[in-house]
Amino acid sequence: MLLEETFGDPPVPAADHINLRTFADTVDLLRQTGAVTGSTDVVAIHLGHHNPPLPELVERLSTVPARVVGDGTTLVAGPTAGGRGNS
3-state class of 28 per DSSP? Predict the structure, then answer.
């Protein structure tokens, strides 16, 4: 699942983007509804300049859990994507 995480820690200035707190809340809500499972590969995208440095961002998103990929990374959907299932 690709989910944008634009604003890092600052409050979100617009209702159409999310920050680290609302990213985690959104993934949690999707887990509660069954849309995200333990085998879902959650990838944070649309990373804005308000985020912490990459090592800290990776560490913080790992608690969701979610991952960060570099610009231009090719993502493959399916049972072998990211070593996880295709839920």
Answer: helix
* Residue 60, φ and ψ in degrees, nearest 5: -65, -40
Domain that holds residue 73: 2-83
Tens of pLDDT, residues 22-56: 999 999 999 999 999 999 999 999 998 899 999 99
Instruction: Report how many domains make up the chain.
Output: 1
CB burial of 23-56 (b: ≥16 within 10 Å; e: otherwise) equals: bbebbeebeeeeebeeebbbbbbebeebbeeeee
Of 2, 12, 21, 16, the residue nearest 67 (C-alpha) = 2
pTM of the entire predicted model: 0.84
